[in-house]
Write a structure and sequence with these properties.
single chain; alpha+beta; NADH Oxidase; four-stranded antiparallel β-sheet; three-stranded antiparallel β-sheet; 7 helices; 9 strands
């Protein structure tokens, strides 16, 4: 991933600026943090397709059953889905720990920069998956991660296991069901025969508030 791929505006959004304009000192610090993380992180991802069955609020695939009204709505009309995982590797965690001791202001910006970078990396991966599916006239739904709505974090265990994440990308799970390294993502993406023109960044970035598949209902 290159520096130009990461939006400074997105980092500022994570920092809570919204429509408020950041001063030059903050912008410079954001640029510095983005550069430092990109110079040291090692982005990796893995994904796998599965056939799935949706019944009521249950999603079934392999030997896994997920009870989630939100996810079943998002996967409506999908007969296949993708399990996806991505990580920036351990270095961002090391940097965050370092600056938490030395410079808390920089640590806060570093946290926001790392969040923006992992999301941008996931977007890039998703675009590539979309291109592959287009050859089969299939379409991808936006990412839906454990912890959204009623999609319980406990299902990270199933995803980590089925994707063989520890071996393939060095991604593991703590006893409290948090991803390690922390700047990582697991997600489900539905595969549909119908093009719903879903925004790659998901429901938060989409203006269609009446969409049947919105994760917030």
């Amino acid at each position: 991933m290159q520096w130009k791929d990461v939006s400074q505006k997105e980092v500022l959004r994570y920092l809570g600026y919204g429509r408020q304009e950041a001063d030059e000192a903050v912008k410079n610090l954001v640029s510095e943090c983005i550069g430092e993380i990109l110079n040291q992180c090692h982005c990796k991802h893995v994904y796998k397709r599965f056939h799935c069955t949706i019944e009521q609020h249950s999603i079934m695939f392999e030997n896994v059953v997920i009870e989630s009204k939100n996810l079943s709505k998002n996967l409506s009309e999908c007969e296949q889905m993708i399990l996806f995982a991505a990580t920036l590797g351990p270095q961002p965690d090391i940097l965050l720990k370092k600056y938490s001791r030395l410079d808390m202001s920089k640590a806060v910006v570093m946290q926001a920069a790392a969040a923006a970078i992992i999301e941008e990396y996931c977007d890039q991966c998703q675009k590539q998956i979309e291109k592959e599916l287009e050859q089969e006239q299939l379409y991808l739904r936006p990412r839906f991660s454990p912890g959204y709505g009623d999609f319980q974090l406990k299902h990270q265990k199933d995803m980590i296991l089925l994707l063989d994440c520890p071996r393939k990308i060095g991604l593991t799970l703590t006893d409290s069901l948090l991803l390690a390294p922390s700047k990582s993502v697991t997600a489900v993406m539905g595969i549909s025969k119908k093009n719903k023109h879903c925004h790659i960044k998901g429901c938060e970035a989409c203006e269609n508030r009446n969409c049947t598949f919105r994760r917030d209902g």
